[in-house]
Design goal:
This protein is an alpha/beta fold. About 35% of the residues lie in helices and about 20% in strands.
């Protein structure tokens, strides 16, 4: 059975705690049960501050100032939106490195209402200078990105979700993976959107690029797509739609380009339910994505 991203997170972080005396983990109750043994074995480096997310991030920054590599973890809105000011000032302003790992994006906890939904995490963090943002599509890709970015001196956000792609790709931090090549347009599929994008574009002559790193964005690979294909760019993102539009526009500023942004609409989801229900409501099913892409290419 395939590991969930959350299970893999617990395994890899536990291993890092055991093997690297510079690893410090700060929690705010969420997933604390995964790290009970680590808390007992390394009480000075594994801390649960309770439901105080701002304190969690500030304590992690304190570890960084003392030479540790801190990891903080919680549900998406708790690790990004509530302590946003602490991420901005304690990490980005001071130039500290660390790892922020979320679960529950964008609406894995949709039945708990808007307090537990986090489609705005990536757009918010993209405003912070020096922030690195990764959106893996499988547990293996999560592990690869965590190990590739670990202790690289920058604050890094790893966004995990219940929904995964069936198969992992040989991804590299900061690089787009070329899934297939075509002539009529380029689709950039972010993280867990890849499988449904590939199904949606069956029979279409499109390049598909797979993004597991959102920031820094791999402009070079996008520019290397065929000249004809670059005139039509479709983004399919699992967070608020249009997150990568500025990066695409900048990368292709010398090329006349049309951009279609498919993602979570910027509106309040008032009817709560499981992720699959929200996917249908916001238009992130295979059928809805195919319809959007077809209409865009026909205009």
């Amino acid at each position: 059975m395939t590991d969930s991203m959350r299970e893999r997170m617990a395994q890899v972080v536990s291993e890092l705690i055991q093997t690297d005396p510079r690893t410090a983990l700060v929690l705010a109750d969420i997933s604390a049960s995964y790290f009970r043994d680590a808390m007992r074995a390394y009480p000075n480096r594994v801390v649960n501050v309770g439901i105080m997310e701002q304190t969690m991030v500030s304590v992690a920054a304190g570890y960084a100032l003392e030479g540790f590599h801190p990891i903080v973890h919680s549900i998406t809105p708790f690790v990004v939106e509530r302590p946003y000011e602490q991420i901005k000032l304690d990490f980005c302003y001071q130039g500290l490195g660390g790892t922020l790992i979320s679960i529950g994006a964008s609406y894995d906890y949709g039945t708990d209402g808007m307090t537990h939904q986090g489609p705005g995490d990536v757009p918010i963090l993209k405003t912070l200078p020096g922030m690195q943002i990764c959106v893996p599509g499988t547990a293996d890709e999560f592990e690869a990105l965590l190990r590739q970015t670990y202790d690289n001196g920058a604050p890094t956000y790893l966004r995990t979700s219940v929904q995964q792609n069936e198969a992992s790709r040989p991804i590299q931090f900061g690089k787009l993976h070329v899934e297939r090549e075509g002539r009529d347009g380029v689709v950039v599929a972010v993280g867990p959107m890849l499988d449904r994008v590939l199904e949606a574009v069956q029979g279409m002559d499109l390049t598909v690029l797979y993004a597991t790193t959102v920031v820094p964005f791999d402009a070079e690979t996008l520019r290397n797509a065929g000249a004809q294909a670059r005139t039509n760019v479709i983004l399919v993102e699992p967070y608020y739609e249009g997150g990568l539009v500025p990066e695409v526009a900048q990368a292709l500023q010398a090329t006349p380009t049309r951009i279609e942004a498919i993602g979570v609409p910027r509106r309040i989801l008032e009817r709560y339910g499981p992720p699959e229900r929200h996917d249908r409501e916001v238009g992130l099913t295979v059928e809805s994505i195919r319809t959007r892409i077809s209409r865009f290419l026909e205009t």
